[in-house]
From TrEMBL:
Cofactor(s), names only, from the UniProt record: Zn(2+)
Region of interest (Disordered), residue spans: 796-815
Protein name per its UniProtKB record: M14 family zinc carboxypeptidase
SMART domains named in the record: Zn_pept
Organism: Sphaerisporangium flaviroseum
GO molecular-function term, one example from the UniProt record: carboxypeptidase activity
Amino acid sequence: MRSSLAGRRAGRLAAGLVLPLALTFSALPVLAAPPPSPSSVTPDRQSSTAKDGVSLLRIVVPDEAAVDRLNSLGVDLAEYKKPLDNGIEVHAVLSPKEAEDLRARGFDVRGAISDPSDLAANEADRQSAIKSADEAASEVDTLTPLRAEWFTSLDDQRFLSVEVKSSATDAETVLTASWDSGRGTAPGSGGTATMSRFTDAGQYMYHRFNAPLSVAATPSRVTITSSRGGTVTVPVTKWLGERRKPPSRHYVADFVDHYMDPTETTGRITALASQFPKLAQIVDLPYKTNGYRRAAQAQFGTDAASTLYVTSKAYGSQGGNDISVALVKPDAASSALAVSVTGENVVVTLATDGSAAIGSTARQVVDALNADAAASALLTASTYRGNAGGGVVAAAEATKLADNLNAPPSIAREPFQMKALRIGKKRDGSKLGVFLYCQEHAREWVTPLVCVEAAERLLRNYAHDPRTRKLVDDLDIFVLPSVNPDGGHYSMYDFNMQRKNMTNHCAASAGDPATRNSWGVDLNRNFSVGSLFDGYSGASTNCISGTFAGPAELSEPEARNEVWLTTRYPNIKFAMNTHSYGGYFMWPPGAYKLPGRELLPRVDFGTENFFWDASGHILSSVQEWRGTGIWPGRTGPVPDVLYSAAGNSADEHWYSRGIIGWDFEVGADVYNQTTKQFEAVGFQPPFAEGHEEAMEFATGQIAILEVARAFAADKDRPDSRLKVTGRTGTSATFTFEIDEPANVYYTLDGSRPTLSSPKLTSSGMREGTQQLTVTRTTDVHWFAVDIAGNVERNYRPDGHGGNYRSQKVVVGRAP
C-alpha cells in the first residue's frame, strides 16, 4: 500500500494467576462473622469495606525463571514487565498477607503503585462528578456568554470567536453555536459548530472553539444551545485586535470527565445513536451476560474442620438474600439432629449427647441440610474447602444469607444486554469495517473511556471536520466500550482489582464466601485460537486463577458476542483491543506452547511490515496529545514484547477471520524529572492521569481508522527490486527491497512464479528481511503483492503472462 502512511516504519495479556489456596488463604475461615447486610449499610460504605486491603505492588526478581515461579505460585501479575540492571520488575495484586507470604519465600516485594487509599480517592472523585452530572441533568442549565466577537487577520479574512459558560459543568453537556450572515439574515445562515469544553487543572472553565472559525460574512448575532436545554442569543461585536490565521480544521475533543461503569458507557453510546440516527445505530449483541449477581451465602465456624457454609439456589437479588439459617442448641440431652423450614427461615437443631453438649459435626449438618427437601430447595450446604468436616459445630443465631454485592440499585442485577455502536454514513456492509473494543479486563478503568471518547469525536466532529467526515463516510465502525460489563460493575463497586467476569465455575472446594473475589473467567483467555485447551501457554485451568480460561473455549457469552459480531459483519477487517497498562502496542501472534516456545504461525512478511508501518502513524498520533512516546521495545507481536496469552481475542479474530488487529496497553510509564526514572501508573490512576490516557489513546483509535481508510482506498501496485548483499567465489546472497509492505513470491529454478511459490520471510524476530543464498548462477523470478491485493506490474500469477520480474544472480565472478 503506497500512501502517506508508507515508509514510516518504527524501525498482556496477563500471565498473572491468583494465588492458590495454600498461599492466598489462611487455614481458618476468613468470614467467621457474617458480612454487613445490604439493607443496613450504604453502597459507599459497603464498597469501602470490600476491598480486602489489596494493593498493586512492585516485585523485583533476578530473572525470567523467577517470573515463571511467580506464575507457578499463582500470583496475580499485572500486564507489566520492565528490565532492570539487577533483574526484572513486575507488578502484582496482593493482600498484605500475600505480600508477607511472598517475602517469606524470598521474593523482593517493594512499595505500592496503588493501594486502598488511592481507590478511596478515585471513588470520591467519581461520586462527586456523578453527583454534579445528576444535578445538572435534573434541570435546564443556564448559559452565561463571556465573549462573542469577530475579527480580521492577514488577507482580511473574517473569524468568529465565542466563549460561553454553562451552569452544568459535566462533560456530557454539549454546546452548539449557530450564527447569521449579517444584519437582517436568517439565524443559522452563517454556519453551525460544536464548541469545545475547556478545562484547566481539572476544573471546568467554559466552552469555546479550539481555534477561531473562519466565516464568509460578518455575523451580527450568535445563538448558543445546550444539550441540557439552555439557550442564549447575543450580539457579535468587533474585536479590535488581530490574530494569525487559525487552523483550517475545527476539531472537538474531551467528552469524559470521570471513570464510568459499564451501565454509564452503554448509556452514552445509546444516547449517541439516538442523537445521530443518520450516522449511527445500536447493535444488540445476541448473548446476554450472566449478570451482576451472585448467589447469597453465609458461613459458620471458627476452624476449618468445624466450618460449613451455605449457598442459596436463587441469586441474592431473586430471593437468596431473604433466606436465613440458624444453628440451635436444644436444652435437652440426647437430642437428634433435625432441620425445619418456615418460609425462607431454615433452623438446624443440633444433636446433643448425654450431657447435653453439642455433638453434630460440620459434615453431619451439611448432609442433613442437603437431604432435607425443603431446605435443599432453598440452598446447598458445603464443608470448608473440601475439608472432611469432622469438627463439632457451634450454635449460631439466625444469619441472613447475602450476595455481598454493593452496587446501587441503578445497576441492574439481571443479565446484561451488551450493545455495540455502529458508526458510518453507509452501514450496509459495503464499506470496510473496523471493530474498536475495550475493557475485556474489568479493572482497566481507563479503557472504556477510550472507546467512548473516540465515538463522541467521530459523531460530533462529522458536520464540520473534513477528516472526520471522510472516516465516517468511508468506513463501517463498530465500538464496544465494555466487553466485560459484569466484571466492570464488580470492579467499580465491590473489588477494584477484579480482572475477570463474574461467572462462578468453581466447585464447593473453592466456593466459600472468602473466595468470591477470585471467581470468574478471564475473557481474553476464553477464545478458541491458540487456547489453553490446544496446549498453549499463558492461561489456567484453576477456577480462582486470574487467567482462568473457563471450562471450555468460548464458554462465556461475552467472548461469543465478539465472535458473533466479527462473523455477522464480515466486512470487519481491522480491530483494536484496548487494555491497560504499561504503554504497549502489539499484534498477533499472541501465544506459544511450552516447552520449546512453539508460536502460533507468525503473520507473513508483508503483513508484519504493514503492522510496523501503521504503528508509526498510530503511535505518532498518540504522541500528539501530550508527547507520550511508546517505546520500540514495547511495540511488536505479543510474545516478542510481553509473554504468551493463550486464547486471546486478537488471535481469534486474525487466524479465524483474517482481521488485522492490534492491542493497546494504555498507561505508558511516566518520566519523573526529579528522580530521572520512568514510573508506572497502574490500572486506576488518579483521574487526571486517566483522563490524559483516554484522550491520547482515543487519538490513536482515530489514527487506526485512518490506516483502515487508506487500506480500503489503496489501488497502487507495489514496486520491488532484487539487491545482492554479499558474494564469495562460490556463492551469492541477495534479498528484495520493496517500496511498501508487501509479500514477495519467487522461484530459483527458472519457473514462472505463482502464489504457491516460496514466499519471502523475515530473517527472524525483529531482524529485518530474509537473505537468500545461491551457490550457482541463478535466474531469479519474482513478483510482489501488497496486503490490499495489488500485484506488481498487474501480473496475473494464476494466468500465463510473463510480466513478472527477473534478474540473474551471478556466482563465481563480479557482475
